[in-house]
Amino acid sequence: MCGIFAYYGPKTNAGKILVQGLKSLEYRGYDSWGIACKNDSDIAIYKRTGKIGDITSLPKEICGQTTIAIGHSRWATHGGVTRENAHPHSTEDNEVVLIHNGIFENYLEVKKQLIKREHKFKSETDTEVIAHLIQENLDKEGLEESVRKAILKIEGRYAIVVICKKENKIIAARRGSPLIVGVGKNKEFYIASDIPAFLKYTNKVMYLDNNQMVVLSDAKAKFYELTNKKEIKKRIVEITWNPESAEKGEYSHFMIKEIMEQKETLYRVLNQDDKIIKRAAGMINKAVGTYFIGCGTAGKVCLTGEYIFSEIAHKHINSTFGSEFPAHHHFITNKTLIVGVSQSGETADTLEAIEIAKEKKAKVLSIVNVETSSMAQMSNMVVPTKCGPEKAVASTKVTTAQLGVITLLAYACAGRLNDGKTLLLETAGKINDMLNPRYEEHISKLAQKLQNFESMYIIGRGSNYPMALESAIKLQEVSYIHAEGFAGGELKHGPIALIQKGTPCIVLCANDENKKAILSNAMEVKARGGYIIGVSPINEDVFDYWIRVPDVSTASPIVNIIPVQILAYKLALLRKNNPDMPRNLAKSVTVK
Ligand code: F6R
């Protein structure tokens, strides 16, 4: 959460570069934003609440002659959404100015000590405390050493970027939260939480690893270990994302663009080298106990994985949310395999679960979209989902790609990788046919019927039960309608009491052994007045509204979630919500 972007180089319009780049990081947080620009001997700071503004409204000292600048887009953790709490933060005289992503867990303790030493604070944030900590040593030790010493006092996960009035340099450091250095032409450098911020200028990057710092000065980038200041040589890596893939193109929102990209994302999953899938499957087959771990939507994918593996590979997999994993660590041994599932590869709860497992010497396999992420770096092996950047807060294309990877792994574990590939190839083709304007229009009509309801329910059985849970997440986060998913068989044990005349209930129905039972559950809801929306290959009598999905046997979770993604998007538009930036959320949750 929170987007960081900094520029160091010969261009004199650093302020403008930052504002444009920050817009592409708004998905990481969009409560408030700010930039700081260094001029000869001063630092100008500009902060605002709300979404990132227009470049033309920026004051002269921000968009004028600046070659060193830092910027931030915030998702509030400590302190409300106010201009004072927006980043950059600084010491009283703007001597030290910094931006921060993460949580400084022991900041209150440190703040108390600083107050005793007469430091005065302007905001409620943990970040401002870091600026004061740095300032304490600045005159004696210079910026680099003061940043290093201050950071060693911080507990928690962080990424910070610091400038000061007296030195023409930028210092950045990280532990847990992401930071990537972009290497531009003519000795210019970018530092950002994510690549799209600078992709327009360069696709050459150097990775700052955990517990490392980078110093940009004298037209060079030098990397050091934080603990002993040992210099580290870094390789320049060329990344393959093209700038267009990080833009909306002809679409009005990233969410619908990414939903439509599902016409091709399964093909990209299939284009993996078989060796990768076979090696990963080998790790699962060899392990004594496998845990799939993810959060939110990725957590629902992990639960779907339990069903897919049971059915295809006849294998027991455990799954849990990253935040719940600490309660399971007693079972972990050096023979356990942890499979981290994540789009960003930066989700703090999942990373922490992996750290716990690694302490117990468990092996780690990750299924990630951002191949350069912290999770990928922490893993013994990575299976990428290869979807390109996913920018809408609500995950769509990566969800189905993760399901695709897990399906392939299950078939490979059963020694039937080719059957898995044939199934996914067929599914990819059918998704391609399904995602046409008429299909969208049919779902738009349903959205019009549902837009004023206060609650809706989704039911599924077997591998479509986790997809009912995922459907609820999609509907909640962008439509703000109360939505809940249940296992069809569980309704009669309580939730059916919620059904009244007209209550919408989406039924995820695959043409499989659960079909009869889920249709009986739909009948039970209908008998109590519920309005039944069937997502199914066949139009059944019980449905009041039918959304056709292809019949793809064990790949049904992949196709069944797609119409619900479209419905959530259409409801968001009708209810005048911004589907790309739902309230209170951020794309990458880098805090616990
Ligand atoms: C919901 C959504 C989130 C993420 C969750 C984990 O649409 O996208 O629930 O799935 O925050 O994020 P990653 O996959 O980046 O670990």
Short description:
This protein is of the alpha/beta class and 592 residues long. It has 3 domains: 3-245, Glutamine Phosphoribosylpyrophosphate, subunit 1, domain 1; 248-434, 3-Layer(aba) Sandwich (Rossmann fold); 436-592, Rossmann fold (3-Layer(aba) Sandwich), CATH 3.40.50. A hairpin with a 5-residue loop joins strand 9 (180-183) and strand 10 (189-192).
CATH topology of the largest domain: Glutamine Phosphoribosylpyrophosphate, subunit 1, domain 1
Calculate the mean pLDDT score and round it: 93
- Radius of gyration, rounded? 25 Å
- Helix percentage range: 25-40%
Q: Which class best fits the helix and strand makeup?
A: alpha/beta
- Tell me how many strands there are: 25
- Number of separate domains: 3
* Neighbour order of strands in the largest sheet: 3-2-4-1-10-9-11-15
Largest beta sheet, briefly? Answer: 8 strands, antiparallel
| Number of contiguous helices | 16
Low-pLDDT parts are none
* Residue share in β-strands: 15-25%
Q: Please state the oligomeric state of the protein chains shown.
A: single chain
In the CATH hierarchy, what is the superfamily of the largest domain? Answer: Aminohydrolase, N-terminal nucleophile (Ntn) domain
- End-to-end separation: 11 Å
User: Shape from CA axes?
Assistant: globular
Ligand kinds: fructose -6-phosphate
Second-tier CATH architecture of the largest domain: 4-Layer Sandwich
